[in-house]
Write the structure tokens for this entry.
Amino acid sequence: MSHSTHTGDTAPTRTLALAGPIKAAILIGALAFLLVAPFMLYPIFLMKLLCFALFAAAFNLLLGYTGLLSFGHATFFGGAAYFTAHAVKVWGWPPEFGILLGVAGAAGLGLIMGAIAIRRQGIYFAMITLALSQMFFFFCLQAGFTHGEDGIQSVPRGHLLGFIDLSNSTNLYFTVLGVFLIGMALIWRFVNSPFGMILKSIRENENRAISLGYSVARYKLGAFVMSAALTGLAGGMKALVFQFATLTDVSWQMSGEVILMTLLGGIGTLIGPVFGAGLVVSLQNYLATSNVPVTIITGVVFMVCVLLFRRGLVGEFYASKLGRMLGFNPER
Amino acid sequence: MMMLFGIPIQALLGQLLVGLINGSFYALLSLGLAVIFGLLRVINFAHGAQYMLGAFVALLMLKFAGIGYWGALILAPIVVGAMGAFVERTMLSRLYKLDHLYGLLFTFGMALTIEGTFRYFFGASGQPYTTPAALSGGVNLGFMFLPIYRGWVVVASMVICLGVWFLIEKTKLGAYLRAATENPVLVQSFGINVPLLLTLTYGLGAGLAGLAGVLAAPIYQVSPLMGSNIIIIVFAVVVVGGMGSILGAIITGYMLGIAEGLTKVFYPEASNIVIFVIMAIVLILRPAGLFGKDA
């Protein structure tokens, strides 16, 4: 979605061009933190955070860089969780193939949903993805292999590549971290590729992209499938980390949650969704022990975000006076 | 026993009636969505929550103020409509100049907040609302037994739908509304208070949802989740119908309700998803929707 913020004040008084070094410093700091974190914090919580961070970043690939708001990403997240869980538990597949099946399944679902949904734009696109994802929810409710309300439980974690025991939570953590970093690197590469540039041009002005000869529908579908596949990567990992796959993961609330993470962190920024996911997951963790209902807080945060800081926390910082002075580019 | 396509005719007619009743609610809700979208260009995600709010206001009025069904039928939509108008005035109106998706996201947050609040105070389980005395009981039509209240819901929803259609297509106020849909700036320059018109429209749409909620209260249980269960189906209805036309929204609502009822007879497993399947087929064959004008 395009902001109406492309105003004329494009003459910053003085920039320090520190954006690059600051980003590098943050990246190194974050990596160092992620390496030592499992020895200080509860590993399951960290892994949940990484799964949702990747989920949000994959979702942002579509919303932030292509301008398509999908209200159905729970289908790919939860669907992949089901596929991975089923493959690992019932068929006895090793975890790496289980996750690959989850990714392939999510990509397949993305191809179907995307092909139908890109026939309409904007608001209709959002409603169609929501409806199709609700259809998948009902499918999962009734299909045999998902075990309805019970879900697939006690999924074995198995041995990665046959020799790394994933039931050890430190091993699992570093596996999840590795997959997360690979996923983020893919997204970064994708966004900065010629393909990603064309996607951005579609976001900014679809008609102009068509008039330049680009087959917009095909690019949108490509982005949709890519985003679905990466979401599947996050979903498959999540099934291994929590050792279950349930209907919660395919519900529309989950689709809403990932939108919130992205919106809160900053649509169209690379680290924004990761930041947003961290905030939302921590908030949920914190509220889980109190009796404040999470839905109300989520709803209010949504409304406040839309009304007051649509760029998200990271985006607002980029666009702030300090951010501009340091040389960050708020125009994404 | 008479049979049709190998199905007892009673079962067929029974499900047809269920379909017609569900269709009545789909029609009422998609009508409200279409009215709001037509002028505000906002997809009101909170529509389901406002429907639930209508049912709850009726329930609470009965419990704490002793106001019965007929009173609630008038007062609850006014309460819900007024709340809607307040939200539009104070918050939603700030989003019109932005991408339309922000309106969707804002009302989504609103729906979560309302639903969460009611879940917090009333739990997730449903509470019964007694059918008004004048409409309880049923009549034997010879081939089937028709509960009077259900017949009333079908008739009432048709009357309301036609009333709203008449208001928008045939009255002066409706003409202003339609003109403002086409070109708000020009209409404003003629001295018509367009922002007020927008507020009233949102209030009207929310009130319609509240009215549907009161009608639904004696049939379905009054539960905080009743709105989110129905709103996604109504979205599919709206996509099938295309939001360009009021009449289209109404007709599609009834049609899909009946299609859903018939599926329950012939292939019950698919009854949950049949509307979504129809939506997908319509999108492939006719992307603008059955009654849509703009692609």
